[in-house]
Amino acid sequence: MLRLLRVGVLILLFLAFLDPRWPMPGRVVYLLDFSPSARESVFALADRLPRDGIYVAFAERAVRLPSPTARRLDLGERTDLKAAFQEAEALRPSRVVLVSDGLFEPIPAPFPLDAVYVPPKPHVAVELVPPPYPLYGETVGVGVVLEAPLSVEARLRVEGPAGTWERSLRVEGRKSLVYTFSLTEKAEVRAVVEGSWGRSEAQVSLQPADRGKALVLGDPALARYLEAQGFQVEEGPFRLPLEADLVAVGLGVLDLPEGAPEALRGYLRQGGGLLFTATPKGLFFGGWDRALPEDLPLKPLGRKGAALVLVMDVSGSMEGEKLSLAVAGALELVRSAAEEDYLGVVLFSSTHRVLFPPRPMTEQGKKEAESLLLSVRAGGGTVLGSAFREAVRLLRGVPVERKGILVLSDGLISDPQDPILALAEASGLEVSAMALGADADRAFLKALAERGGGRYYQAATARELPRLFLKEGQEVFQGEGLEGRFPVKTRPHPLAQGFSPPPLPVLLPARAEPWAEVVLESDGRAVLALGERGEGRVAALATDLSRSWRGWKDAASFLGGLARYLMGGKKALALYAYPEGKGVRVVVLGHLERPLFLSEGQEMPLVPTGPGRYEIQAQAPGVLLDGPRRLPLAFPLPGEWTPRDGKLVLKTLAEASHGRLLALEDLGQPGSSPLPLRPYLLALALALFLLERLLEARSFARKA
Length: 704
Description:
Blueprint: H1 2-18, E1 21-22, E2 28-33, H2 39-44, E3 54-58, E4 62-65, H3 81-89, E5 95-100, E6 113-117, E7 125-129, E8 139-160, E9 163-182, E10 187-195, E11 198-206, E12 213-217, H4 220-228, E13 232-234, E14 246-249, H5 260-269, E15 273-277, H6 288-291, E16 298-300, E17 306-313, H7 321-336, E18 342-348, E19 352-360, H8 363-373, H9 385-395, E20 402-409, H10 418-426, E21 430-436, H11 442-452, E22 453-459, H12 465-476, E23 482-486, E24 489-490, E25 504-507, E26 510-512, E27 517-522, E28 525-533, E29 536-541, H13 555-567, E30 574-580, E31 583-589, E32 596-599, E33 602-605, E34 607-610, E35 613-618, E36 622-626, E37 629-633, H14 646-656, E38 661-662, E39 675-676, H15 678-703
Parallel strand pairs: 2-3, 2-5, 5-6, 6-38, 12-13, 12-14, 14-15, 15-29, 17-18, 17-20, 20-21, 21-22
Antiparallel strand pairs: 1-39, 3-4, 7-8, 8-9, 8-10, 10-11, 16-26, 18-19, 23-25, 24-27, 27-28, 28-29, 30-31, 31-35, 32-33, 32-36, 34-35, 36-37
Protein name: VWA domain-containing protein
Pfam families: VWA_2
Organism: Thermus brevis
């Protein structure tokens, strides 16, 4: 007997180790997808569902149903699978069956899950994507995003400031279109999609984020274009400090107050936007390639060099301020010359001296000329003849077509004047003259300019000399324009996307500096080039807008975009979002330091894809960070009607939880709740063990 009990205990312990379970009827919870895309299919099979289950309906919320045929239309317009799982888990089910179209983002199930696929409802959803940062006057695009889980015919109507769109189209998956218009005030855009399945609509409001301020100097045509784009335009005067977001210059250096080039350079370096246009007084005609040689993105192309010899009075009467300012003016001549130009200086007093013969004004040539000019001293009489003859002789061997002489004096010429006048007339050179002060021999100098075919200048004080020298330099070292029909080609750049400029009737032949980027070109010549200098942006346009683009309907939009780009370094960003794949492509145009996109707690750097252009593929809304700037970005992401392979989603979800994808006929299978037998086996083994000990104790007692 005792041996049998011991064997029984061992057998029971062994069985407990195997942990056997006894099948018993279980609790089945059915999760019914009542979201808009699935509920009609789920309603259609309600009569085929078992009556002995527990039913939970879900969309954005989850609620328990009294029966499978009960209907709820108040659970929201999207699918929240997490809410459904939480409701089911609270019911402690032995089996969970999900009945859905699978149009959702799957999440792991906390229990074994079976799934039944139902087809989604034919439908087209529409959503409008506004530009995240629209500027006043900007041509903006509102994205029209259509989504259909099944291929379906639809009629689309979009209403807004640009009129009404009406289109018939087939939608399968995701389709994106853009509705564009000029934003000059608060705007409403409404989209309606209709078809055999019904109707859906969306509406969005746009409020201009900013309005740029432009100071336009000497270019009325540009001013009108910018006004049409919503800019606050002021057409002069030039005054300091420069408070505009953009300064457009169509005047020459000498048309602006003294110190203007330095002020514009400082404005640019501190983040301002500069635009130079080729009016008859602007760009190369205005001397800006000489006044701002390091900051102008265009330089003249194929310019024929010129030669000029300055014949400068250094007699005793010039000593002091006169000589200092005359030297400052000569330095302006040096700075205004291009590499292909020649400049020489002959000094005269009682005798003449060649300070330096005509030499190309290369960078090295300019440095040497400046050094020699700063060494000039005054003293002696006023004898011009020999100095003038020497200047004529020096110019004979210079290999350029245009040659000139500029004579500066502040006193009476002491040698015979007729031979000088005769030589000026016979030399074939362009002779100009400059009289300084009341004691200058004005009659002779004026006659010298007339006989020599040049220009006569009169400076009441020495302070006028630098600007007069600069004016003469512009006359001699000038560029040329071309007239005809010049086709325009766009280069890859965000500003040129979607634009096809017509041919130009007038063009200044130009080349771009190495640091600049060409946006428009014509047969190898740069038409529009831009770049960054310091914290700001600068551009140069080598055509006259009063004659070019007058019939081009997109001229205002293109120039408005250029203006906003230039002021971007100082004022604002241009920011766009395009639905693409499962997310959105975000494009930022602007001067950014270290742009980051913050989304769902993660910081992702934007990728530079071109000068002033950054991009990122975003999967969820977030915030654009750049220094102190924080721009929220909200855009449509895959939602209730996003096309997916719902059947595959359900199969993957079920198999990941050790369940399976069921057919409709499998729904009636009863659930089971296995009963663990280990506790009962261990209890019985313990009882037998105690019985064995009791019997063994009695046996010992009898023997005793």
